[in-house]
Amino acid sequence: MMDRINIYDTLLKRNEIKPFLKRMIIGDEKWITYDNPTRKRSWIRKGEKAQAIAKPGLTRKKVMYVWWDWKEIVHYELLSSNQTINSELYYEQLQRLQQAIKRKRPELINRRGVVFHHDNARLHTSLMTQQKLRELGWVVLMHPYSPDIALSDYHLFRSLQNSLNVKLQKRPVKNHLKQFFDQKPQKFYRDGIMALP
Q1: What does the pLDDT look like over 81-103, one tens digit per residue?
Q2: Angle of CA points 115, 117, 122, to nearest 5°
Q3: Tell me, which fold does domain 4-31+58-192 have in CATH?
């Protein structure tokens, strides 16, 4: 198995020879916590002991899969609470992503080709997923396991999480995501991808 430095060196050299950043579609998943209970402050008189406050119960979560490029969000999906993340679901998502790319980035389908980047989670490396990616004809970039340097985590998801912390309790998840993605200028996505080298 290649180490991180060699992989990144290989990708950097590859981009210098034949630039691929504007052909790249990046995909990742994010857990979104919602219906967070808020704690209320209680005031006590001087000299009284503070009362213990029970920890709030577990909050509900949704999983979002998002795929983006240097211009915008190409496609995203929120999984319903009863869905299990597995290779079959990811296979179906890749089919829907292909349709979204045809609508939003026809030049990638018709001429240039998709350069695809996702992490090496088990469902991404399954035989079923690998066969689907070959069928689609997408070039898949190498990815060393290193969650601390995943582009989605340090660029897109950090910004999204900041907005979720502030506003999520006031409106449904789906509406919030649509508004968040729609309000980001192209420069936001371009800066995230073009800063990779």
Answers
A1: 767 788 899 999 999 999 999 99
A2: 135
A3: Nucleotidyltransferase; domain 5 (3.30.420)
